[in-house]
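ok trying again, last paste got cut off:
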Amino acid sequence: MTMTFGHRASAMAMTFAIIATAGTGHAQENRDRVEDGSSTDIVVTATRREQRLQNAPLSISAIGGATIQRQGIESIEDYGNRIPNLAFQAGDSTRTDLQTSVEIRGVSGSGTTGFYIDDSPLVANLNPRVIELDRIEVLRGPQGTLYGARSMGGTIRYITKQPNLDRFEGQVHLQGSWTSGSGSPNGMIDGVINIPVVPGIFAVRALAYVEHDAGWLDRAPSANAPVKFPVRRDFNDASYAGGQIAGLLSLDDGRLTVAPRFLYQKTTRRGRSEADYQAGNKVNSRLFDVNETGGSDWKLGTLTIGYELRFGDITAATSYFDQHDDDLEDGSEFLNANYNKNADPVPGYLYAYGRSKIFSQELRFTSKFDGPLNVTTGLFYQKSKSLTAFPAQSMLPVTALLFELDRPTTITEAAVFGEANLKITHRLSVTAGVRHFDNKVDYSSLSKGLLGDNRLYTGVQKESGFTPKFGIQYTFDEDRMLYANAAKGYRVGGVNSFAAGRCDAGFAAIGTTEDKARGYKSDQLWSYEIGAKTRWLDHRLTVNAAAFQIDWKDLQQRLGLGSCGFSATINVGSARSRGGELEASWQAAKGVALSLGGGYTDAIITDNGGLNGTRAAQVGSRVQNVPKWTVNAGLDIDHDIAGRPGFLHLDYAYVGDSYNARNTPRVRPSYSIVNARIGVRIEAVNLALFAKNVTNEAADLADVPPLIGQYAGRPRIAVNTPRTIGIDARIAF
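nice, full thing came through this time. structure:
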């Protein structure tokens, strides 16, 4: 039985007495502080210039590289629920068991959170494996001025570790584990090596990794399966392989730097990590034994050139991203129920593949003026080409052509941006910025067959506008600061794909028509926040807090269209989101760090945009997939074990319930995750025992809109990994 947040309160209070978040912001770096209490606050570049986390006048969390290794963070599943007011769930594409959709402060939906690797803007649901990073930064609130269209809710930045120009070094990492319900182990090996080819001038850093995650779901014949096939155990296993190679060239006494980098990742899976009806159901009941295979591979090449002038820094960042993905989905139940009602059932499935190519270029100047005024200004260009395709497929004897689709889309974005900070006094400063954007979306869609409509749809969407930002900061002393920000964010529009004339009842239930829903326009919002960053007790206690209100217009939401099986993104009206975050960390004693974080978000529909159907977004209803509460806690203890340096880490995360309407409207239950690690260092070897998801919680990460059609009333729910226990070894040289 799922308990409410109120029912959990007493248990959580006891938990908070001994553990805290060790998962967000400054709390992540407690163990990196020296014992006399002086701070080594993590340095971030969220505002495109280096500053300590406590000095950045916005709500931001950051996880340092030492913490990433110490806590065994490998993906957003490992850190996402430890960030106040950040929630992740299955996205709006069927392939999202490999990907995720991230919402910050209630701004939910595909493409609302920007995702960067260094200076390269990428698709937000990429979810790469975290192998070697300098830090992860999570910026809350719209970042439209410096980061552009897809950062209307916030931005996640992966900052990679740069080559070391002076020292030969490396590391080998081995991991073995076992997941509850699986019949085989998990395994991973990765390694990194740094070579100063010309010491002080040129170095190369390379890493590679392979990983296998065992499956833990089973597929069994349903009661009405025509053939009782053998139960397929652990069908949802997945494998990952990849690496990167980076160079760093330093010339002109370090003023000129040239940093090329190439990253690659390949993912292969034998089945989807999706449960029927509810997250705890570990058996997929099916008419036929169809392997839903799939995967993806992507490549990212970047080149960053920086030149340091006396009065500022010039940065030129170029990137090229190329991704392929493919997916096969069993739709036998839906297809036979709708197109083969009075005959013996036959297998029905679809295969799809996609490709994305993104070229990005940014030229940026960041000043270092001696006076009270400093500026950041630049130019940005990005061209994204994507293709979703279904090759011609049959379902004999029902039809010789079940479905065929070709849907290319090109998005071109150009922008000029600037932000200025003026110190009025040594305590008071103000910030103002603006970005002018000019976007163009070219699309076409042609579908054929039983599920298609044999019509060609083409169109062009053009938009231009401004996203301003205003801020004020007042510093009482080096340990206490107040700030307030107002900023605008936006997201580009797009096109829906569905067969003409098939979903009239579904559109009527929403309160719109097929013609109106063929495309959807951009949405935009204004965000207002006020916050404080404070340190106390000789820097041993840090307390940061922020409150916000967001007014959101024309928000895009993914809605199911009923028995026709399709879903569509609809502009459902307006919404309001308000709430706040609190993060506190305490260096309680020598070698003991505690911290606590919490977020509250109340995101509701305020205007349904004239939609009046029975399934239309009702005024006062919750925005989809937004939990009201996110709470996290953790404890870190550094203490010798058998005369060797050792540590203990515990963390807890609670994610409240949320509303989901992609299939049958329902409430996603709340869930709690507990993790633990204990480790010891023996010379150059770090050993750790770990347990992820100690309580074996089955978390509902939202249902996934399918390739073929929604089997109404039976959502396929993306789920987290069950309890996993293992051993981890890192060998440095």
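cool. The domain at 5-451+472-502+539-571+584-610+635-732 is CATH 2.40.170.20 (Maltoporin; Chain A). The helical segments are 5-16, 65-70, 76-79, 144-147, 332-339, 504-510, 514-517.
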